[in-house]
């Protein structure tokens, strides 16, 4: 039984060294998901930088809001541990970017672009929370 999801999980790694094997496998899943998530974030950010002119960093905003919704969806589906490691921790952990969001927010403050800072910060937090909850609720229905 998976304690995170409540679903029955069949594990092939029972016996001696099972914890170490499971930990290594989870690390591989997180690393692979993280690689793909980082690449996806890079491509989305580059696309926005080339195609869209905006005072708000739409690439960062898009990946963060999309990541909120999709992680909520994954949580609502009560995905198994391996999928959570690969997608939740790995892919979405690397796809979304709190550090870039904070850097861009700080740059707005340093440039005294107060209204832009307020719009960007509030939209990131409030819409992100809403989309995470919406994803979770939709996931429960699927």
TrEMBL record:
Q: Does the keyword Transmembrane helix apply?
A: yes
* Residues bound to Na(+): 93, 96
For this chain, the family text in UniProt reads: Belongs to the fluoride channel Fluc/FEX (TC 1.A.43) family.
* One Pfam family this sequence matches: CRCB
Q: How does it sit in the membrane?
A: Multi-pass membrane protein
Q: Catalytic activity, per the record?
A: fluoride(in) = fluoride(out)
Broad class of the protein's primary localization: membrane
HAMAP family for this protein: FluC
Q: What is this protein called?
A: Fluoride-specific ion channel FluC
Q: Lineage of this protein's species?
A: Bacteria, Bacillati, Bacillota, Bacilli, Bacillales
Q: Please describe what this protein does.
A: Fluoride-specific ion channel. Important for reducing fluoride concentration in the cell, thus reducing its toxicity.
Tell me where it resides.
Cell membrane
**UniProt KW keywords:** Cell membrane, Ion channel, Ion transport, Membrane, Metal-binding, Sodium, Transmembrane, Transmembrane helix, Transport
Q: Where are the transmembrane segments?
A: 24-44, 56-76, 83-102, 114-141
Q: How is its activity regulated?
A: Na(+) is not transported, but it plays an essential structural role and its presence is essential for fluoride channel function.
